[in-house]
């Protein structure tokens, strides 16, 4: 294909261009395309990450469940926890079926959000929880909330503070609706709360009490819960007494005035009575708790009814499940309109019922899903609008690294238990992308992760970053598959990843080859080595596969093997380099072979680390390890390496998250391994916040480094990162010392990768938390860098004039708005005739008047001009701010009365450019 034809094809696929903005820049920013979400791989299932601490409440014919969710924090080796745990929601129909295709967040906040409560109000719910978001310290947390309508709308623009105390970690709370307002109680904290406190919240979301009201000074109400009946709110808690921990209660009215002179005992047996739970049937309460004996290792579940006036309706506590070895835990209680239900865990979930008169219906309780494996925990109950109760729980049946899922089922009797259903749903999370450039085609690999499994998927992309196939290619699957990488050897691709060998259970490195047409060249994944953390590079029909290999009991060394691209087989025995405690490898191809880079830790227990590299020739022979950088007792992590053909550059994260010192450094090496910089280059300078997780490439003209950036953090707890980039010339000059913005949302953008496409172009992919439906998960987002202020280029073919000349379009100046000097020229036209520039926003090559129309309609006409005696013209092209990032294509149309085809016109070739700053 000719260069001109290739350019025309590329322009046909071009996508609208936008400019990435940054508050402060020292160089003109590169042109960045609009974001392109990855296609396919969207089947909804159980979300990745832990989901636990569920809460649920019934509404008008439906229910709302909330829980603490870890899906934003799936990057265990990224030196960042992003937003930590967040509160996610799911509405349920009366029969327990999810109403929302995917769960949705109550708010993506910095820090950890835990211990949610769901409380039904007059016509909507209040979801409240303990959040670190308002504080600047891990030792501060407040109670925040948001109202949720029956249709799933969040009625508050953002979660609002409910109960907050300076320098205090409010760990748990209780909430109720007393018929007029919500009341939130908190009595447990690290410090700062002067006792049991309460705040009332009006139905419109405003605070009736702007400051917490101390309703019981000095009281530490451990494990408290509450409910309301007939204008009285009962709070129950456990506290130390003469017989150990006992359950006490006290009532307050809607004005927060006490209805009891003092707390009264509800459960005060000779054994510790703890963790009470309270439920109302509208006229009275049921308080349930667990009782355990540390001495005899026995325990049971007990309950007692309390009238709205505070009278104990049962002479003695009711024994619900009988005495058990080691005792049950995690009690919960609900009223279904006719009877009380209790749930607890004892080798799985068990349930029991108490009738309205206080008679235990199910002696010793009954199991939920009898015979099921012991995977159920943390049961929560709510009255089901369809009868019986809706049960939700945390379930670890999948047994993956993330562990816990949230599931639910409706139960109406011991023999009538509905099918359990996942509630914490999402599309698969797409993580840890890597891209290999292959010219006009590219291959991206990534993890596709649900709770059940992880798959290694591949997408073929064109040179504009658009997927070439409707569905991705599955390369392999394993519960703990990790670290996918990919390379191109000039003919084919090879992907590699780490996963446990299902037969030997050894940590293993796997590969699979992919042809440029997307066909798989290996019938199944190939186990190449025992090892971890693979990296791969390709050149001239061969691949260098490197990984961490365990030596002796604790040492891990860099190891590699040379693979034949045509067969996929090893060309040599594995080579192990002498560098103890080595992790996080990266590699690239040089004109004569490969370079392998890695992080070397000081020891298996000392995480101080430095940066090393080794040159490997085309036959697989290694050079001696090269020390690249690392001050004593420093931290050099997340190594990335790129090769330009003239030199080598390494980039890494320098500093630790614990100390808040992470920055991106880089250093160049000659092709012989000599340092070209006297000291490492600091890539980003003079900005607040940290930078980490770099990805480096050579785009054909310069190095492009992308990284996670925390300058947008709202507090020291806020680890939600954005994606920034910086360009570094081949001579080591950093063009963007303060970086330029690539991706930013209110959630999290993580793990960027970037691959050079040549001619100043690059393709980047990163995982962005798409919190709202239809995804509810990390999803890949692709963009292309279209170079700097690239000069206008010509394309297409001119039409021969009656004089035998080819009218030629040209330009003077640049396509820069700031320069303001762009002029459009024409030469070799018919002298002294009328000519007119035509403009469009996209190129084309369409038959027109026995010539070629180089513009995609609709067309815009510019004012006519008269060509001079040589057949030339020269006009100014005004560019304004609103044109920034747009593509403009021009072609000259001119009169040619002597045209032998009778059309009377001539046409020039085309000129295309993107408007830059």
Structural account:
The chain is built from 1 helix and 73 strands. The protein is mostly beta strands and 917 residues long. The strands form 19 sheets. Strands 63, 66, 69, 70, 72 and 73 form a 6-stranded antiparallel beta sheet that branches. The longest helix is centred in the first third of the chain and has 10 residues, at 3-12. The radius of gyration is 33 Å and the shape is elongated. The two termini are 33 Å apart. Residues 1-26 have low confidence and may be disordered.
- The helix tally amounts to 1
Mean pLDDT: 90
Quote the distance from N terminus to C terminus: 33 Å
Please state the structural category. Answer: mainly beta
Low-confidence sequence ranges: 1-26
Proportion of β residues? over 45%
Write the layout of secondary structure elements.
Blueprint: H1 3-12, E1 17-19, E2 31-33, E3 36-37, E4 45-46, E5 51-58, E6 62-69, E7 86-93, E8 104-107, E9 113-120, E10 125-131, E11 142-148, E12 160-163, E13 170-177, E14 182-189, E15 195-201, E16 213-217, E17 222-229, E18 232-241, E19 244-252, E20 264-267, E21 273-280, E22 284-293, E23 298-307, E24 318-319, E25 324-325, E26 329-335, E27 339-345, E28 349-355, E29 366-367, E30 376-383, E31 389-395, E32 405-413, E33 416-417, E34 421-422, E35 425-426, E36 429-437, E37 441-449, E38 454-462, E39 473-478, E40 482-488, E41 493-500, E42 507-514, E43 526-530, E44 532-539, E45 542-551, E46 555-564, E47 575-576, E48 582-590, E49 593-601, E50 609-617, E51 626-629, E52 636-643, E53 648-654, E54 663-669, E55 681-682, E56 691-698, E57 703-709, E58 722-728, E59 740-743, E60 749-758, E61 761-770, E62 777-785, E63 793-795, E64 808-812, E65 823-827, E66 834-840, E67 843-848, E68 851-855, E69 860-861, E70 865-866, E71 873-876, E72 887-895, E73 905-914
Antiparallel strand pairs: 1-2, 3-62, 4-35, 5-6, 6-7, 7-8, 9-10, 10-11, 11-12, 13-14, 14-15, 15-16, 17-18, 18-19, 19-20, 21-22, 22-23, 23-24, 23-25, 26-27, 27-28, 28-29, 30-31, 31-32, 32-33, 32-34, 36-37, 37-38, 38-39, 40-41, 41-42, 42-43, 44-45, 45-46, 46-47, 48-49, 49-50, 50-51, 52-53, 53-54, ...
């Amino acid at each position: 294909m000719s260069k001109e034809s290739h350019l025309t094809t590329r322009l046909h696929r071009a996508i609208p261009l936008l400019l990435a903005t940054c508050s402060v820049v020292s160089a003109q920013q590169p042109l960045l395309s609009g974001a392109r979400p990855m296609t396919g791989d969207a089947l909804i299932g159980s979300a990745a990450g832990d989901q636990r601490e569920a809460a649920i409440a019934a509404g008008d014919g439906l229910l709302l469940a909330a829980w603490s969710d870890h899906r934003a924090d799936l990057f265990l080796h990224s030196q960042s926890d992003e937003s930590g745990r967040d509160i996610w929601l799911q509405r349920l129909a009366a029969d327990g079926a999810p109403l929302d295709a995917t769960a949705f967040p109550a708010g993506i906040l910095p820090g950890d959000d835990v211990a949610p409560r769901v409380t039904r109000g007059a016509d909507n719910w209040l979801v409240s929880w303990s959040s670190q978001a308002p504080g600047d310290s891990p030792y501060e947390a407040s109670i925040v909330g948001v109202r949720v309508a029956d249709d799933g709308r969040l009625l508050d623009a953002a979660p609002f503070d409910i109960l907050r105390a300076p320098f205090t970690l409010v760990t748990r709370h209780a909430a109720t609706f007393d018929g007029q307002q919500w009341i939130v109680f908190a009595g447990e904290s690290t410090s700062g709360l002067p006792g049991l406190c309460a705040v009332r919240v009006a139905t419109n979301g405003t605070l009736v009490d702007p400051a917490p009201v101390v309703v019981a000074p000095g009281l530490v109400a451990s494990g408290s819960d509450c409910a309301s009946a007939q204008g009285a709110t009962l709070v129950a808690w456990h506290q130390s007494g003469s017989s150990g921990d006992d359950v006490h209660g006290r009532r307050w009215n809607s004005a927060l005035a006490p209805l009891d002179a003092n707390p009264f005992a509800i459960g005060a047996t000779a054994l510790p009575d703890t963790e009470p739970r309270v439920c109302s049937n509208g006229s009275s309460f049921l308080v349930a708790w667990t009782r355990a004996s540390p001495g005899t290792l026995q325990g049971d579940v007990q309950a007692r009814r309390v009238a709205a006036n505070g009278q104990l309706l049962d002479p003695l506590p009711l024994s619900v499940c009988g005495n058990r070895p080691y005792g049950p835990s995690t009690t919960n209680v609900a009223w279904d309109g006719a009877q009380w239900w209790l749930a607890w865990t004892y080798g799985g979930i068990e349930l029991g019922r108490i009738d309205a008169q206080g008679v235990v219906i199910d002696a010793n309780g009954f199991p939920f899903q009898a015979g099921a494996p012991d995977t159920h925990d943390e049961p929560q109950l709510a009255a089901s609008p369809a009868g019986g109760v809706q049960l939700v729980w945390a379930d670890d049946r999948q047994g993956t690294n993330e562990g816990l899922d949230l599931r639910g089922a409706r139960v109406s009797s011991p023999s009538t238990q509905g099918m359990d259903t996942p509630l914490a749903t999402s599309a698969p999370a797409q993580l840890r992308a890597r891209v290999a450039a292959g010219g006009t085609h590219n291959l991206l690999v990534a993890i596709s992760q649900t709770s059940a499994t992880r798959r290694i998927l591949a997408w073929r992309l064109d040179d504009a970053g658009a997927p070439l196939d409707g569905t991705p290619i599955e390369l392999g699957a394993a519960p703990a598959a990790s670290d996918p990488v990919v390379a191109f050897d000039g003919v084919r691709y090879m992907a590699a990843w780490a996963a446990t060998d299902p037969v030997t259970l050894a940590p293993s490195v796997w590969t699979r080859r992919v042809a440029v047409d997307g066909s798989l060249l290996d019938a199944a994944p190939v186990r190449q080595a025992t090892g971890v953390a693979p990296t791969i590079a390709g050149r001239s029909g061969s691949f260098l596969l490197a990984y961490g290999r365990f030596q002796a009991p604790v040492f891990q060394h860099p190891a590699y093997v040379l693979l034949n691209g045509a067969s996929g087989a090893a060309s040599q025995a594995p080579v192990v380099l002498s560098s103890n405690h080595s992790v996080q490898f990266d590699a690239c191809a040089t004109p004569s072979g490969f370079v392998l880079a890695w992080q070397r830790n000081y020891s298996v227990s000392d995480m101080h680390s430095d940066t090393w590299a080794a040159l490997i020739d085309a036959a697989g022979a290694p050079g001696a390890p090269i020390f690249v950088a690392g001050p004593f007792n420093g931290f050099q992590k997340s190594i990335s390496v790129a090769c330009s053909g003239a030199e080598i550059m390494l980039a890494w994260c320098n500093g630790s998250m614990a100390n808040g010192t992470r920055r991106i450094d880089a250093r160049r090496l000659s092709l012989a391994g000599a340092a070209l910089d006297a000291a490492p280059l600091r890539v980003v300078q003079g900005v607040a916040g940290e930078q980490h997780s770099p990805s480096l490439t050579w785009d054909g003209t310069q190095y492009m480094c992308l990284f996670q950036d925390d300058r947008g953090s709202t507090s020291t707890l806020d680890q939600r990162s954005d994606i920034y980039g910086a360009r570094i010339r081949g001579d080591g000059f950093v063009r963007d010392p303060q970086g330029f913005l690539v991706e930013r949302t209110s959630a999290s953008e993580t793990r960027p990768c970037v691959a050079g496409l040549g001619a100043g172009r690059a393709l980047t992919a990163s995982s962005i938390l798409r919190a709202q439906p239809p995804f509810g998960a990390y999803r890949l987002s692709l963009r292309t860098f279209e170079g700097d202020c690239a000069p206008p280029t010509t394309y297409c073919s001119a039409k021969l004039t009656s004089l035998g000349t080819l009218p030629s379009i040209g330009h003077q100046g640049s396509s820069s708005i700031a320069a303001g000097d762009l002029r459009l020229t024409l030469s070799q036209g018919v002298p002294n005739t009328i000519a007119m520039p035509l403009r469009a926003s996209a190129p084309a090559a369409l038959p027109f008047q026995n010539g070629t129309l180089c513009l995609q309609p609709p067309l815009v006409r510019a004012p006519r001009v008269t060509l001079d005696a040589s057949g030339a013209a020269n006009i100014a092209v005004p560019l304004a701010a609103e044109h920034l990032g747009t593509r403009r294509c021009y072609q000259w149309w001119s009169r040619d009365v002597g045209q032998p085809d009778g059309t009377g016109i001539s046409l020039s070739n085309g000129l295309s450019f993107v408007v830059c700053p």
